[in-house]
Amino acid sequence: xxxxxxxxxxxxxxxxxxxxxxxxxxxxxxxxxxxxxxxxxxxxxxxxxxxxxxxxxxxxxxxxxxxxxxxxxxxxxxxxxxxxxxxxxxxxxxxxxxxxxxxxxxxxxxxxxxxxxxxxxxxxxxxxxxxxxxxxxxxxxxxxxxxxxxxxxxxxxxxxxxxxxxxxxxxxxxxxxxxxxxxxxxxxxxxxxxxxxxxxxxxxxxxxxxxxxxxxxxxxxxxxxxxxxxxxxxxxxxxxxxxxxxxxxxxxxxxxxxxxxxxxxxxxxxxxxxxxxxxxxxxxxxxxxxxxxxxxxxxxxxxxxxxxxxxxxxxxxxxxxxxxxxxxxxxxxxxxxxxxxxxxxxxxxxxxxxxxxxxxxxxxxxxxxxxxxxxxxxxxxxxxxxxxxxxxxxxxxxxxxxxxxxxxxxxxxxxxxxxxxxxxxxxxxxxxxxxxxxxxxxxxxxxxxxxxxxxxxxxxxxxxxxxxxxxxxxxxxxxxxxxxxxxxxxxxxxxxxxxxxxxxxxxxxxxxxxxxxxxxxxxxxxxxxxxxxxxxxxxxxxxxxxxxxxxxxxxxxxxxxxxxxxxxxxxxxxxxxxxxxxxxxxxxxxxxxxxxxxxxxxxxxxxxxxxxxxxx
Length: 616
Ligand code: G6P
Fold this sequence. Notes:
Helix content is 36%, strand content 23%. By secondary structure, it is α/β, with parallel strands linked by helices. The protein folds into three domains: 3-249, Glutamine Phosphoribosylpyrophosphate, subunit 1, domain 1 (4-Layer Sandwich), CATH 3.60.20; 254-449, 3-Layer(aba) Sandwich (Rossmann fold); 458-605, Glucose-6-phosphate isomerase like protein, domain 1 (Rossmann fold, 3-Layer(aba) Sandwich), CATH 3.40.50. Strand 5 (88-89) and strand 6 form a beta hairpin. The structure holds 6-O-phosphono-alpha-D-glucopyranose.
């Protein structure tokens, strides 16, 4: 949801800003812009399209500067065009501003400003900020950071802001509420980013801004941070932290795309997510971040899982895991629905928020709501230091490493791994799992990375199946039990990156409507691994074949029944039923990937999407 980069220091700002934008492009890529401080005035370049379009446009332009701000946009208000691209300028061109978030009361503010004679150049909510800040600064004749604090006290919504001002050419003013922003501290130079990716190449000393913070970054004075919630507006001591990220992690490492790299990283990311959490003798599972809250979790009357997108699918898998192993009821909620539903929440409820980025606005709102009702709030997230990690009472990180491809792959399997460990740990302490079952699951869990390696080796076979699927306008994914969420995830992967319309269903639901869609043109991708309901799935497949549908199946190695009924079949290693989502999801990721490639789609940056949805 928009990426922000800014720089001030003695180096050339433009290359740093552009490299930073490329690294944040997963956050949005419908237009991009940069404002550079050149000889005491602001030069603005903006372009519709991707960051590379802006770069091409700037090839013939003067880009020399030592301070600047840059933005890659995911449109919320106003279509993606040059006018609506950030940065936005004050009328006298003395301020340039970039924004990630949504200003909810922008219409009333805009009307007010228009009544006072301001003429807007864009349809964005952001432009009100720059005019409001300038107006407050001029009217009260106060320093810019104070004007920002005053102006923001009138603003409702979420923001991460960076402002460049001709009055202090090497200074940047930053503000944060609800959208992420961090400052990388170099040797008398500063690197600002929506996350660590634009910063890690230069420094690993960072300050994560907190909600309400307004920071003044300048080369003459030390970093100054105040919080608009503090009525005395006292200076805060910056809390310097180490950025937990390496450059290799955010580069493609020889793969053609981030998505393919991330699919192939899964054996490692799953191992990393298990590391140190199962003791040497394999007798105890323990998630360090949850120890303090384990008792509360064991005594919970109910778990509520809130998440969005792929993380919601991981939540559905967890529902099966927790109910089956821990015997505590689980409800899985779309965070966006939960927050507006006036839900019934008790103090002995435990809300588990799952998020790769830790910045999804709806998931964070669900966390706030649950906290207000006195429930225990646990986070499962991938990005160290993200808002979710800070706003939850306890939690556990998935150690997937940075995920850059917009379609989530390794984060999903890492989430399922951590949720499995969590369920096993609770079940063990609660005594709801037999020793033999516990050992069976632990041993199998430890063998998952190697099983995924064997599936990845089948990439060429999956590529051939992709040739077939790529020619179809629709696809249906079927699964039952714990593999029903895998069917949903398979359909989501296919539609989001290849733009083929796809639906996921529990196989038995076919009869209640979707079966009407089946004819010789419809491919059905069925997860039919060895499981309790295997025979039922066989019947479901027969119903499809009777209507001339084409079966593409994911089966357990050695299967003959379903294989015999399928046009294409992908065999995967035998796995405990409760752990099959970890393996069955991988061929579906590869299938979606190759279908998208064949159809000429940009797999890392699918149209209209962004990786981190920090707006509602
Ligand atoms: C976006 C991404 C998805 C992701 C979802 C939730 O829609 O494109 O890949 O699953 O947000 O994101 P989160 O960071 O909360 O897991």
